[in-house]
Amino acid sequence: MRWIMSQIARLGDYLMSLSDRARMQLIIIALLMLGGGGVYKLVRSVQRLSEPLPAASAQELIRPMQRLFSDTKGNLNSYQQTRRQELSRLDSLATIRTKQTETP
């Protein structure tokens, strides 16, 4: 950790020793490299999008949807079961409460 901090400090000292013009040129070069990388990635992704996808079988398309349906159905069932349990618990508490208030 100390080595990393010392390297960062040395880099900062070096950058401060550069003239304003040299720092400006360094920043412009870094920005051009970043921009060029972004343009390159954009061009590559557009080329990849224009390539046709391999044909998938019907089973390959249906299998992820079936998995999603079964996961969602399982979550819904557990939610409904928890909700029913909670409602029955609240009903029993309400029944006990009304019995307590009715008896003097």
Would you kindly provide a written description of the structure presented here, covering whatever features stand out?
With about 100 residues, the protein is mainly α. It has two domains: about 30 residues; about 45 residues. The protein contains three helices and no strands. The longest helix has about 45 residues. The protein starts with a helix and ends with a helix. The model has no long low-confidence stretch (mean pLDDT about 85).
Secondary-structure content class? mainly alpha
Number of strands: 0
What overall form do the CA principal axes indicate? elongated
Ranges with pLDDT <50 over ≥5 residues? none
Q: Please give the alpha-carbon distance between the first and last residues.
A: 73 Å
The helix/strand series, from N terminus to C terminus, equals: HHH
Strand content: under 5%
Q: Summarize the amount of helix as a percent range.
A: over 70%
Tally of individual domains? 2
What is the number of helical segments per DSSP (H or I, 4+ residues)? 3
Sheet with most strands: none
* CA radius of gyration: 33 Å
Mean pLDDT: 86
Which terms would index this structure?
single chain, 104 residues, mainly alpha, 3 helices, 0% strand, elongated
Offer a quick outline of the entry:
The chain is mainly α and 104 residues long. It folds into 2 domains: 30 residues; 43 residues. The protein has 3 helices and no strands.
Produce the secondary structure layout.
Elements: H1 2-17, H2 20-50, H3 58-102
